[in-house]
Design a protein that fits this description.
heterodimer, A: mainly beta, 7-stranded mixed sheet, 4-stranded antiparallel sheet, 51% strand, globular, B: mainly beta, 6-stranded mixed sheet, 5-stranded antiparallel sheet, 56% strand
């Protein structure tokens, strides 16, 4: 158990809909990261937050947004969903910057868009 | 754009043999490298890391080698076990952690 909690574990929805994925980081970790893993793809970095502020941005679509709340949990919002958004979405957390130590990953939220 | 990649998408290894998984990276600004293991249905799990001021680091049954001259990273697993079957990702870090596509390791009994 990494200590990172993601909900929901599975989600099935239709094209055009909007979903919210939630992540609770490990106790004490200030950084939260979101990654997308599509079938046969590696992990694509979406966005990072540190102590409530956006720290780094990757290949995140404009239809996607995220935030980190004062209690350090994070939410990833996916809107106007398309079939191609079907993927595993991972949240990870770390104490500080990604180059200062290990990222701990949750078990992912599997999104299926029909 | 810059990317992290792996040389082979799959690797089949006899139980008890040593495994070598290779990775090429292209971002010269990366100063921290990590290997992750992802088992089916789970999130990636940290195996070992190395900083750019080192060329070798050893852990328990694993060794990471870094060759900055040719931008090459490798993971060696000694005495491979069935539990080592997984997808292995190398990752590089400048200000963000970027992952390669992964190598699927299958251990034959």
């Amino acid at each position: 158990d990494s200590g990172v909690t993601q909900t929901p574990k599975h989600l099935i929805t239709a094209t055009g809909q909007r979903v919210t994925l939630r992540c609770s980081p490990r106790s004490g970790d200030l950084s939260v990261y979101w990654y997308q893993q599509s079938l046969d793809q590696g992990l694509q970095f979406l966005i990072q937050y540190y102590n409530g502020e956006e720290r780094a941005k990757g290949n995140i679509l404009e239809r996607f947004s995220a935030q980190q709340f004062p209690d350090l949990h994070s939410e990833l919002n996916l809107s106007s969903l398309e079939l191609g958004d079907s993927a595993l979405y991972f949240c990870a957390s770390s104490l500080g910057s990604p180059n200062t130590g290990e990222l701990f990953f949750g078990e992912g939220s599997r999104l299926t868009v029909l | 754009g810059e990317s992290v990649g792996l040389h082979l998408p799959t690797l089949s290894v006899q139980e008890g043999d040593n495994s070598i998984i290779n990775c090429a990276y292209s971002n010269s600004a990366s100063d921290y490298f990590i290997w992750y293991k992802q088992e089916s249905g789970k999130g990636p799990q940290f195996i070992i890391d190395i900083r750019s001021n080192m060329d070798k680091r050893q852990g328990q049954r694993v060794t990471v080698l870094l060759n900055k001259t040719v931008k090459h990273l490798s993971l060696q697993i000694a005495a491979t076990q069935p539990g080592d079957s997984a997808v292995y990702f190398c990752a590089e870090c400048d200000y963000k952690l970027s992952f390669g596509a992964g190598t699927t390791v299958t251990v034959r009994a």
